[in-house]
Write a structure and sequence with these properties.
633 residues, alpha/beta, seven-stranded mixed beta sheet, 18 helices, 33 strands, binds coenzyme A, binds adenosine monophosphate
Length: 633
Amino acid sequence: MPNYHAEFQRSLSDPSAYWLERAKDVHWYKAPTQGIDSSHSPFNTWFADGEINACYNALDIHVENGRGEQAALIHDSPVTDSQSTLSYRELRDQVAQFAGVLQSEGIARGDRVMIYMPMIPQAVIAVLACARIGAIHTVVFGGFAARELAVRINDCSPKVIVSASCGIEPGRVVEYQPLVCEAIQLASSPVGTCIVFQRAQAQWPLQEGRDKDWDTAMQSASPAECVPLKSTDPLYILYTSGTTGSPKGVVKDIGGSVVSLKWTMSSIYNVQPGDVYWAASDIGWVVGHSYIIYAPLFMGCTSVMYEGKPVGTPDAGAFWRVVDEHRVKVLFTAPTAFRAIKRVDPTAELLKNYDLSGLQTLFLAGERCDPDTLQWASSNLGIPVIDHWWQTETGYAICANCQGIEPLPIVPGSPSVPVPGYDVQILDSDGQAVANGEIGSIVVKLPLPPGTFVNLWGADDRYRSAYFERFPGYYETGDAGFIDENGYVFVMARTDDVINVAGHRLSTGAMEEALSNHPDVAECAVMGVRDELKGQLPVGLVILNDGCTKSHEQVSAELIQQVRNDIGPVAAFKLVAVVDKLPKTRSGKILRGTLRSIADSTDWNMPATIEDPAVLDDITQTLRSLGLAKKQS
Ligand code: COA
Ligand code: AMP
């Protein structure tokens, strides 16, 4: 096994040579001779003269190399009490067929296709079918509401939406037709066609002229071959939360994604072709894109797609059952899933019913992993539990304990060390490097490695200003933290208004916009407060317009519904209170940091710039009524 430090140094000393070497491990129609082109930094490109197809690398190559009968995708769905498996050959054939369906709808290279689907194999088929013909997929998480869909439709103008009749949450069927129809109505950009997979739990009444039935379309289509594409062509757009209400359309290219993601399977996760890999996430998130769909398939692994929850489907032994039944070698999920299991089954009694001897490693990401959860998981599972840190923008880990390079000591609270390719540094607000152990902004010195985002869709200026302007020459991650004397990185908090709820990245700005849309709201603030299960929860404080005669309870209920309607249930917005005033600086800025500290019962100092200190007493009382601010000051 290579030595981590040597590998890391090689990746930084000559990035082009390092990644061109790794690029030899994937299939190219035309092998690249160029590594990075940073002549228009930060708009860098990788492998610019290469020609490639991501779907070919995910499917066809394995069928041609004798893996056709191996399971490519196992769908395990406790919410429908069903399971199914697609071999590489079957998956390739269905993907080719659906690519033919898309072509018959006039979809070609560069066209956008929106995928709004639950965790079913058809979602993976739709994604890979886009990749096969060079269409750019944009997957939207099923827990987002119609308005969020509409914002994304307007931003990237998809010609086609691929959807299903419903998603299934424990105890309720989520019908997609009303959501998609409302989104199409709200959006100004026209959508020509909806291709709908009908599930038994709900029927989508097809609208003549617009909607097509998946099965019928598949029967009449001719299969499409993989199209050779430029390495720099976009593979997908994935929207993620920024500080404002308008999400950022993170764009990934094809060549960089194929090379980097395949490489992470051996270097970070230490898995080989034929191994079973399970990312318990959702295809609507970057973890789902990278580790339910692309990376395991690039590697020739079997990927598990799980339509269920860690608890309640049917119990807190669900994860153990899946690992046992499918002989999972690597499990990847968010710490919140383990906190949920631990809460229901603190002594891990249910674990005893299953054989987990095949499980080699557990990887956690998506939010800060509290040492307690890490210890609980590692002592009960008896395997390495690896916290790793990454973002939608990067597509794979920035910091990790790379199990396939050199396993390093595990330090609870830290996602370990930078992954080769990432020159991670900590800067103060003046852009100066800080000493070991000192907190600052976590940045990555440019260039970023391949597979990281190449732009924001249609928003060059925002790309530059949101990520590269504050610290010239660096990518600003938006996270704050420190590096210790051994080079371990600690990711402590966001530096912006993004919060992390159950591993889901959400914008408090977007929630404030939703609250402000309510006719009785004059002013509002939303902040993330600590929560034992979900890491953080949003809390809203609102000031009502003069003359509002509704009770506070009624307004609060309406506001909770408003956020659910505008953003979606995934926002988990359930804590809101009416206040007379918000604490502000003399220049009128809401003191969110102070509010958060009071709510979390952490120590805080009276800000010197506060306009009216007495407001904080009232706010503290209000927060107590929501079960927060427990400590007496
Ligand atoms: N479609 C529609 N609604 C959805 C949805 C989807 N795909 N996913 C979640 N929701 C809804 C839930 O039903 C819930 O609605 P409710 O308010 O009516 O109860 C709401 O959104 C919040 O969902 P969630 O955050 O999942 O909370 P939960 O209480 O249902 O479950 C956990 C709690 C911890 C079990 C769950 O958050 C979990 O499994 N987390 C792991 C997260 C993860 O894998 N993140 C990926 C990043 S790596
Ligand atoms: P997303 O883009 O949805 O993947 O969210 C990325 C954000 O989640 C990061 O910027 C961090 O704030 C947080 N995050 C992800 N993984 C970790 C981790 N291992 N430790 C701390 N924070 C994390």
